[in-house]
Amino acid sequence: ITAMNKARMRAIRCHRFAALDKSGKPTTAASPVRNVLRLEEVQPPSLRTEDTNKVLISTHYAGIQYPDFLQAQGLYQIKPKLPYTPGMDVAGIVVDKGSDVPDDELRIGDRVYANTALCPDGGGGTGALAELVSVSSTAVFPIPDSLHLSSVANIGRNYCAAYHSLKVIGNVGPNDLVFVDGSSGGVGMATVELAKAMGAKVIAGVSHMEKGTLPTMAGADKVLAYGRDKESHKQFKAEFKAAAADMGHPHGASLIVDVVNGDLFESLLSCIKPLGKICLVGFVAGQKLIRPGLLLIKEAMVVGSLWGRWARENPVLFRNNMNEMLEYMADGRIEPRADSIFPFDDSIKAFELFEENKARGNTVVD
Questions:
Q1: Cα separation of 276 and 304, whole Å?
Q2: pTM, entire model
Q3: Measuring CA to CA, which residue among 302, 324, 328, 322 is closest to residue 310?
């Protein structure tokens, strides 16, 4: 995406939610996401005199992940006011800044990543799919010269969610055992990469072994398939116990990062060690009731993992976490990557990857 020096700019706009009717109630069948997203020309943002703490970024790459697709359907926990511009993650170049943004923090021409969810007016993490983006300086992070901008365009949706679960909630340390399901997806692969960078051992779960290549490439010590039925889940539990024991953890994982939920969740309780934690990050297989008796027997803690509120309330700690993740990428402990890149004119195809359940890893719009 390249900013134009014109009175208008291009942006993707959503004018209605694909899975909701006009009254805001769920429809029996969602409309194709292509029917609710449009490439339009709109008024570009500019910095006013009173925007002393804001930064204007020329967008080179924007990340699109499953929550962005859900938001366009109207099924995400945060529903922006219509019409809106999707996208939370921006990677680009600073083209202007407010008078209160010091040069020792940001300069015009700096390569940066920005997260619109950290802005007071961020609309729940929207606005990235536009040629120019105006954000609070607190939401902007300089990028090391060694990193290509495309490789950092999914930090918010994927890596921030994973690192919050691993570090802030899980307090993962060297040689701890981590299990993550949905490990061929964006958050799943980021969890594998970050956990390995932190020195942990990782068992990655996928629905079937055809998806196992990606978490293996991300560094997982072991990849297991849990399937989609009770018999497969039963086999998975036995395989997990054997793998965990072989890795020196016969009592199970210290932390489980769950992006799948659904019928798989109760099987995960057989994989957690006593007083271990399960971080709920997503529900791609739907939501099921959690039986408290099972949590009691397993002595397991189940924690919802949403990093945005914590980041806004702990800006210094969050910036430290961001710098740690960028350092992991810069020094090679994490391999910087963009797995699927779409030209800006084809942005809607990035959303269709998630509609068709074909998305893997980091999806980026150029």
A1: 14
A2: 0.92
A3: 322
